[in-house]
Amino acid sequence: MKLKASADPRVRAAMAHFGVHVKTAQGISMPVLHKLAREIGTSHALAQQLWRSGIHEARILAALVDDPARVTAAQMERWARGFNAWDVVDGSCGHLFVHAAPAWQKAVAWSRRKPEYVKRAGFAMMAYLAVHDRNASDAKFVRLLPLIRLHASDERNFVKKAVNWALRQIGKRNARLNRLAIRTAKQIRASDSSAARWVAADALRELTSASVQRRLRTRARHRAA
């Protein structure tokens, strides 16, 4: 099998260093997986087989080759039950689920779930939607901000980082959302939770930065032209 032939113990050690502790991990780098995905092309059927294999990198590859037009809410729930590492979560959400019809529904639903990696998936989806859904209204993102505020106190590392990520990406879409995201971050900052204070401080540092403010002004000028 090409996956096992591409395994590298050094990559596996690096994965563990970055918080991926999965017994089925082979140690296959992302450039190798992307190369395999290009060779395979799009295959919904193969993606399901790869996911069912349970092999860590096979599940990442599944998200790279699946067809988002054929992804259902039931498939998303089935895969979510198997989430056990942040890279599988981010790969599934960023390469596949964000482009599927139930993306918004699952972003909200998963953000309210208890399991760490499913909750991360909810907020990762929000971040990816902020980047990829160019046609979404501001109102859709505004409705996510109370969820971000509510769950910013989750102390689990992979959750709080995703909450922060979602807030930052929403706040970088345009000037209006930037103001609302900054306001949300300031509300979060008032919490007595160390996780919430970290989420707020990190988000405020980026969202109020000169580079982000300059980019938003430039974007607004181009839209007005």
The overall number of domains is 2
Specify the overall morphology: globular
Q: What fraction, in percent, of the residue positions are helical?
A: over 70%
* Major sheet summary line: none
What number is the mean pLDDT?
Answer: 94
**What fraction of the residues are assigned to beta strands by DSSP?**
under 5%
Number of contiguous helices: 15
User: What ranges have pLDDT less than 50 throughout 5 or more consecutive residues?
Assistant: none
What is the tally of beta strands? Answer: 0
Radius of gyration: 18 Å
Broad structural category: mainly alpha
Task: Determine the N-to-C terminus distance.
Answer: 54 Å
Provide the succession of SSEs. HHHHHHHHHHHHHHH
Structure in words:
This protein is mainly α and 225 residues long. It folds into two domains: 1-66, no CATH class; 84-224. 71% of the residues lie in helices and 0% in strands. It has helices at residues 2-5, 9-17, 30-40, 44-53, 56-65, 73-80, 86-95, 103-111, 116-132, 138-142, 145-151, 157-171, 175-189, 194-207, 210-224. Helix 5 packs parallel to helix 7 (86-95). The longest helix has 17 residues, at 116-132. It is globular and about 50 Å long. The model has no long low-confidence stretch (mean pLDDT 94).
